[in-house]
Design goal:
Elements: H1 2-7, H2 13-16, E1 19-30, E2 40-47, H3 54-63, E3 70-71, H4 74-81, E4 92-95, H5 96-101, E5 109-114, H6 115-120, E6 124-126, H7 128-133, H8 135-141, H9 147-154, E7 161-164, E8 176-182, E9 189-190
Parallel strand pairs: 4-5, 7-9
Antiparallel strand pairs: 1-2, 1-8, 2-5, 3-8, 6-7, 8-9
Length: about 210
């Protein structure tokens, strides 16, 4: 969506409304030490669809949300860290260093980062340098591509752009996840609006129009 907004005029509907996306931020403990030390918390930003299918979101509502997020089962989380989705599909998982070298040329993948890194990133309004160098922004964008162009087009009159997150208040021992928003209730890149917020998605018809 960021790539699309860069290409269209600001009068386009993409710039006039907020959207939720088929991208999610999932958090929990890396019990096997697949991405660092055993027992450390990690954040996985999944693009293109992960655990939170519409049916899974409905189940999360029925079971009760935690921190406005879906509570994950141990199997769901464990499989995700091994690159497997609930439907059996395999996805590639990348580190932040991977993304800084090259933006993945696939539509579905995950980005893994230490939860502490996500916690310590600035939540709020950013200058251009802060925005394009923010690890969480890079993970949410799926790489560095289009970030500078997006900032230049989306910045406010104070030459600032927002990136918000809820990680200072999330309990890393509670495995959970929620969807990402763009130009949402908080400003621009947002992960603070939970599954109890409204949703608006972009759809593509079978004919491609």
């Amino acid at each position: 969506m960021i790539a699309a907004k860069v290409k269209v005029d600001k009068s386009h509907e993409f710039w006039q409304k907020w959207y939720a996306f088929y991208s999610e931020e999932d958090m929990g403990i890396d019990k096997k030490g697949l991405f660092g030390k055993k027992g450390e918390a990690v954040l996985v930003v999944v693009h293109g669809g992960g655990i939170l299918t519409p049916d899974r979101i409905e189940k999360a509502y029925a079971e009760g949300l935690v921190d406005s997020s879906a509570k994950y089962r141990n199997k769901e989380w464990g499989n995700l860290l091994e690159g497997r989705l609930p439907n059996g599909e395999a996805i590639n998982l990348y580190s932040l260093d991977d993304l800084k070298k090259e933006t993945p040329k696939i539509s579905k993948f995950g980005v893994v980062m230490p939860y502490e890194v996500a916690q310590l990133t600035k939540s709020g309004w950013h200058t251009k340098k802060e925005f394009v160098e923010n690890p969480l922004v890079i993970a949410r964008n799926g790489g560095l591509e289009n970030l500078e162009a997006y900032f230049d087009k989306a910045k406010n009159s104070d030459l600032m752009l927002a990136n918000f997150h809820p990680f200072k208040s999330w309990n890393p021992n509670q495995t959970q996840g929620r969807l990402l928003f763009l130009n949402d209730c908080e400003g621009d890149l947002g992960g603070g609006c939970g599954l109890d917020y409204d949703g608006r998605f972009v759809g593509v018809s079978a004919g491609g129009t």
